[in-house]
Amino acid sequence: MKHLSPLIAGGMILLLLAVPLSATDKKNAGLAMLLCVVPGGGQFYTERYIPGLVISATELTLGYYAYKYHQDEDHSSRNSMLWWGLFVFGYSLADAYVGAKMYGFDIEADIDKVSMQFTWRW
Question: For the residues 23-34, what does the mean pLDDT come to?
């Protein structure tokens, strides 16, 4: 089991190196969700660095406290940290998916081109 951790870490590093870093108009949503295995990886892939830092810091902090409570045999607090970590992981997946789908979407609208028309027929 001790040899499995370096193997997993090496696989994650290779996965991150395989990510194309070119700026395109679209991002692969499946790859963004896959990169969520690394805390904040999907957010970094979609070039949303602030949410990536917040998510990664939150997941790492929750993991640290879950491990600490496990060592202290405080199972209730450990389980609470694990549930919060699962919630943050789920949020990270959803956020990475939406960020990849909306990548390159222009938020600004030209107000002069927006119009409404009503037609009344009798």
Answer: 70
